[in-house]
Design goal:
The chain contains 2 helices and 10 strands. With 111 residues, it is mainly beta.
Length: 111
């Protein structure tokens, strides 16, 4: 089991159309506890109201929720379209050893 003392989740928009942040929330589960990163958090993080290709959302879990990420196997991240209540397309997750950050690459394709 890989262990990593990290508290940063990085989500990169890797393709597809822009997403209005008003219609987006991020549900994160760490070690069995659920957290929500709201649309206003996302807009503030990006500094704008749209998440576009190559934009990165970084969530510091220690600052936001008072918890770090010890093991990626104990974490689940879901991007939710709040209008349709649907989970956005799958993403890839893994630790980046050079930065000790959890990195999510999200290939978004909206139809």
């Amino acid at each position: 089991m890989d262990r990593c003392s990290s508290d940063i989740i990085s989500l990169r928009h890797a393709g597809g159309e822009s997403i209005d942040t008003e219609d987006l929330k991020i549900n994160v589960q760490i070690n069995g506890t659920s957290y929500v990163y709201s649309s206003s958090n996302i807009s503030e993080n990006l500094g704008k109201s749209f998440w576009e290709m190559a934009d990165v959302i970084q969530i510091n879990t220690s600052q936001e929720w008072g918890t770090g990420i010890v093991n990626e196997e104990n974490m689940d991240v879901k991007l939710i379209n709040t209008n349709s209540k649907e989970v956005l397309p799958k993403y890839r997750i893994g630790f980046l050893p050079e930065s000790s950050k959890v990195h999510l690459k999200i290939p978004l394709t909206l139809i």
